[in-house]
Please model this.
Amino acid sequence: MLARIESLRIDGSAAIAAAPDVAALEELRVRLLGRKSELTSILRGISKLEPSERGPVGSGANAARAALEAELEDRLVELEGAEVERSLVGESIDVTLPGAPPVATGHLHLLTRTRREIEDVFVGLGYRVLEGPEIEHDFYNFTALNHPPGHPARHAQDSFYVDPATLAEGVVNDHGLAPGPQEVLFRTHTSPMQVRAMESQAPPIFIIVPGTVYRRDTIDATHSPMFRQVEGLAVAEGISLTDLAGTLEHAAKALFGTERKTRLKPDYFPFTEPSVQVDVSCFACEGSGRLADGTRDSLCKGSGWIEILGAGMVDPNVFGFVEGAYDPETTQGFAFGIGIERVAMLKHRIPDLRLFFENDVRFLGQFA
Model:
């Protein structure tokens, strides 16, 4: 009897080790240890044995049963772990992914992309990108840029003033006093950073200043009281109008195509002298003023040229407002300003400025 018990234990251990899955292991548990199993029958029949056999047989059968139960438990843990591993591999779900239907991935707004294109052009020429405050002092926005009080150029711009009572304590004007009611405003251009940048360092200086600006204006297809601008300033020994022309021609070719030509026409800006308007040859009619079918080109209005920005040599009066290394008698530099919306509208033939602000996904989706 003891030999049979040992045989049942050995055969059972081998079968347990070979069980391929949890279901097979459960069937094996019933066959080895169930109510109708041979080992259970041996334990039930101990009372029918000779008194001298009851002890050894009972002890051996219980030991075999305990050993098989332990092996079944260990094998169950092993098989369940293997099933979990297979499930993770075959049925994995990335819970960080969006649900169904997935949300479309966003993209940069066209104005942001255009601003970065302009920045890349000038960073490639060695310019630094600076940012300035949108809430600005009258001194930096107008006076230090050769717009003295009463200057006609102020009247088209100076509309969005800020109540000084809403400013943080300690804010003072250029006289060290608390600002008056007409001394703090939303900047009308990013040009105030010309003076601020020159106050912080000696020449040479090569910077561009992108940002949002605010002016008194109506809202129509080509105008808005809020728009974006990139200001540029270059000050270095011996710098001239020729350097300005070459710089802006390079920028125009980089933004509008290498076949573009530029021209400079006399203009007027209070903080540059001489001042110029910069035009680029039309990319619809290739500068001819006529389209392929012979009709007048509406983009350039038949002139063959498109105005893209204003520029000029920095007026010596501006250097005079900067203390230190910028002597107005000896210092030279140039400045320019270009509208980001205007560049985007020209490059992508967008007819209405208001499309940039309406958040119509049909329009924005074209520039993904």
In short: Residues 110 and 366 are 9 Å apart (CA to CA). The beta strands are 128-129, 135-137, 184-186, 205-214, 226-235, 262-269, 272-281, 305-314, 333-339. The first strand starts at residue 128 and ends at 129.
